[in-house]
Amino acid sequence: MKRALITGITGQDGSYLAELLLEKGYEVYGLRRRTSTPNFENVAAIQDRIHWLSGDLTDLASLIEAVRVSDPDEVYNLAAQSFVAASWPQPIATGQITGMAVTNMLEAVRIVKPTARFYQASSSEMFGKVVETPQKETTPFYPRSPYGVAKVYGHWITVNYRESFNMYACSGILFNHESPRRGLEFVTRKVTNAVARIKLGLDRELRMGNLDALRDWGYAGDYVKAMWLMLQQDEPDDYVIATGETHSVRELLEVAFGYVGLDYRQYVVIDPAFVRPAEVDLLLGDSSKAGSKLGWKREVDFKQLIEMMVNQDLERNRT
Ligand code: NDP
Ligand code: GDR
Fold it and tell me: Where do the NAD(P)-binding domain residues begin and end (predicted)?
C-alpha cells in the first residue's frame, strides 16, 4: 500500500486529492494547522480515513516530524495562502507561507525521505502580465501580485531541488480550477453563492470588481488527477494544466445568473474595493504537454462547472 502526505488537505484541492488517493488504495496522511474553529467541511466524508498530523508550513520541525511519521512515497504540497487579493494586505505572510515555506517542505523531504516523490502546487498566476498566449511551460513568468511572486519562488526552488539533489520533484502549473468546495471569496463561488441567495430571496445585490478579467477555468476534480499522474512518470517534470478556453468574469455572471433565469445586470454593483492594485488580464493555458505525456484531459467544461456550483449553492442555501 502506497503512502501519501498531503499539505493543505482541508482546502479545495487537498480534499479532492485525498478522495482520489483513498480510492486508489493509498494510506493518506494529512497535515493540518491548528485553527480556532474546526474547518473539516471539505473532508467531512473522509475524515475518519485520514491519518491526521498537526503542523504548519512555516514550522520546519513540524514538517520533519510529519515526514518521519508518514514515511511517504509521495508528498503533495498544496498548502498556501492562496487568495491573490489577500496577498497585498498580507504580503509578508504570503511570502513566508506560499513562497519560502516550500523550501521547508523540500528540506523536510530531503532530510528525512529524499526518495519520496514531491508535487508542488504552482500557479498560472506566475505568468501574470501577458507575455504570450496561450501560456505554456516555456512562457516567461511576470507575476503581478505578492502571491504570484511567492509562487515563482516556490516553483524555482522545486526545480532547483530536482536539479541539485536529484529529487523526484514536479511542479504543476495549474490554471484556475473551481468546484462547489471553492472558498467563498474566490470569484466563481462568490458568484454562484450570490446567484443562489438572490434566487431564493436571501440577497438583493452582488458587489464585484473587474468584470473584464479573463480566466481559464476548469474543474478541481479533473485537476487533482493531473497531480497524481505527474508523480507516476519515469522522470520528474513540470506541466501546465488548463482547459485551453478563456472566459471573462462578465461571461461567468451571464452563465450563472442565466442558469436560474435572472439577468445579472439587475443585481451586480461595481465596487472599487474588489478591484486589485495590479491585475492579471488574461489567462489561457496550453496543456498539450500534459495531454501527450500524461494522457490527461479535462472532463467538465465551463458551463457544466458553473451549473454544478449553482446547484450545490441552491441546495446549501435552502437548508
Ligand atoms: P485552499 O485555499 O482551498 O486551501 C489551502 C490549504 O492550505 C488549506 O488547507 C489551508 O488550511 C492550508 N494552509 C494555509 N496556510 C497554511 C500553513 N501555514 N500551514 C499549513 N497549512 C496551511 O487552496 P486550493 O485548494 O484552491 O489550492 C491548493 C494549492 O494550489 C494552493 O497552493 C494554491 O495556491 C494552488 N493553486 C490553486 C489553484 C486554484 O485554482 N485552486 C490554481 C493554481 C494553484 P486552512 O484550512 O487552515 O486555511
Ligand atoms: P485568481 O482567482 O485571483 O485568478 O486566483 P479569483 O477567483 O480570486 O479572481 C479571478 C478574477 O476575478 C476578478 N474579480 C473578482 N475576484 C474576486 N475574488 N472577487 C470579486 O469580487 C471579483 N470581481 C472581479 C479578479 O480581479 C480576477 O481577475 C486563483 C486562486 O485560486 C490562486 O490560488 C490560483 O493560483 C489562481 O487562481 C490560478
Answer: 5-309
pLDDT digits (tens, 9 = 90+) for 48-64: 999 999 999 999 999 99
Provide the terminal-to-terminal Cα distance of the chain, rounded to the nearest Å: 40
d(CA 30, ligand 1 centre) in Å: 13
Task: Write the DSSP assignment of 220-275 as a string of letters.
Answer: HHHHHHHHHHHTTSSS--EEEE--S--EEHHHHHHHHHHHTT--GGGTEEE-GGGS
**Ligand 2 centroid to residue 210 C-alpha, Å:** 10
Can you give the length of the chain in residues? 319
Atom of ligand 1 nearest to the CA of 181: 3
Give the Cα separation of 189 and 310 in Å (integer): 8
Rounded-to-integer distance, Cα 264 and Cα 207, Å: 11
CA of 83 to the centre of ligand 1 (A): 8
ipTM: 0.99
Given 29, 125, 168, 259, the catalytic residue: 125
Ordered domains of the chain (ranges, CATH): 3-177+218-241 (3.40.50.720), 183-216+245-283+299-318 (3.90.25.10)
Are the C-beta atoms of 97 and 79 separated by less than 8 Å? yes
Strands (E), the chain: 3-7, 27-32, 51-54, 74-77, 117-123, 169-174, 177-178, 206-208, 214-215, 218-219, 238-241, 247-248, 268-270
Q: Return all residues near 198 (Cβ < 8 A) that are at least 6 apart.
A: 204, 205, 206, 262, 267
Residue 145 has pLDDT above 90, yes or no: yes
Task: Tell me which residue has its CA closest to atom 20 in ligand 1.
Answer: 56
Grid cell locating 9: 488537505
Predicted TM-score (pTM) of the model is 0.98
